[in-house]
Amino acid sequence: MTPTLSHLIADLADGRIEVVDLTIPLGIETQVIALPPIFAPSPGVSMQVISQYDEMGPGWYWNTITMGEHTGTHFDAPVHWVTGKDLPHNATDTIPPGRFVGPGCVIDVARESATDPDFLLTPEHIQAWEGVNGLIPRGAWVLLRTDWSTRSGADFLNADATGPHTPGFHQRASEFLVRERDILGVGVETIGTDAGQAGGFPVPFPNHTIMHGAGKFGLASLCNLDRLPATGSVIIAAPLKLVRGSGSPLRVLALVAR
Ligand code: MN
Fold first, then answer.
1. How far apart are CA 221 and CA 8, in angstroms?
2. 7 is catalytic
3. CA distance 144 to 187
4. Which site in 95, 142, 193, 224 is 20 to 30 Å from 215, CA atoms measured?
């Protein structure tokens, strides 16, 4: 074994590296995105017991689960969006596995999002962050901390007569990240990687359009971003190997030095 991996195992065992779970619970209570009624909705989670130490299976317990691919803490593959549909290696089963692991860059806009639920990150915000923390490195996961994961019930989708109001990325920020930096993708605490009002933007759903058109990924409904440093974590986000999958629920883990 290399010294690097030996140190990693020792540091994990001794608690010098902590594994932080960035995943929300996945169950029948998990909220799903609300689309305008002209579009097909994604179903929520259903679970049916196959057997539970009973006559259907006396020694074992297991369930059948049903849900949309984009439910709870989940991964968006480039093929999810029409702009990424013809890219190579664009689905959950064909993305090279090395692209599921990378350094975490946490941009904290929790304060801005608390006062303005429609807050949008701009390139100027990113460059101000880089002025303190250094350039976003190659292969990074850029994680937008909004503390939105602390909300529950109707406050999570935060919808009114004009639709959902949740923070996200300005079109120029998504363009900056794919053109001026070389990232794996972005992660958010909200139900999707676009802002709540993004369906009505000049380019509708600009983050999906731009990220996936550039072969980048998305992570939605993350939590515990407040437990990560701005830089220095390692993010592991590997979706299910669904054949031609557009995404999947997944367990997102962060390795953090203590
Ligand atoms: Mn999604």
1. 28
2. no
3. 6
4. 224
